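Protocol step 4 of 6: structure prediction from sequence.
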Amino acid sequence: MKNHPRSTRIRRELARHHPSAFLLAAQLLLLILYAVFDGLSSERAIISAFGALVLMLVVWVVSRSPLLNWIAWALAIPALILSILSAIVNDSNLLAWSSLLEGLLYFYAAGSLITYMLRDTRVTTDELFAAGATFTLLAWGFAHLHLVLQEWLPGSIYNGLHPGQPLTFIELLSLSFTNLSATGLGDALPASAPARVLVMLEQFSGVGYVTVVVSRLIGLTISNRDRKPK
């Protein structure tokens, strides 16, 4: 019981440093790591290690929201274990299950950030960082689902650059970002009904997120600025 006030103070102190910004920065750094270590034998181990840090940041962000924190841990712990095991034994089936859990965790975290951003009419700096972090969480979540679909239904996604070969995760992530942002680059295409449905759901999610959440934050920012006394 004595440690509870201390842990509460620590969490409040950390909350001042914009955890959404830490998460967004970590995800953008992970993109750079994908580019730097692409093709190297150590790529999978390095990405897995840094991915574990990202998972912990995701749980940290969820812990600040009104949603249930234990659900995030229930998804993050087995996802982390399976991810490490898949990197050690190079088992694609383990990687698929790990990706499924990670995808669910990212969607849950995105939902927690959206709830956090919509719960009041005041726009804070952390909420602006949360807007960017939520977009990347959605992109990563759908990328993991694309990976699961590719593993469980081979040939579901057509590889335009290397026909007949499965896409790497960075290629699936690129596909996810282009679908979520509706830019529509065509080097990878859905080739089965489940893949097309997943792509449509992602495009709908991207448009809906910008329309409902981002536009609301912009509107509140302008409205709050206009209310300030001059």
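Step 5 (inspection) to follow. Residues 3-227 form a domain with the Helix Hairpins fold (CATH 1.10.287.70).
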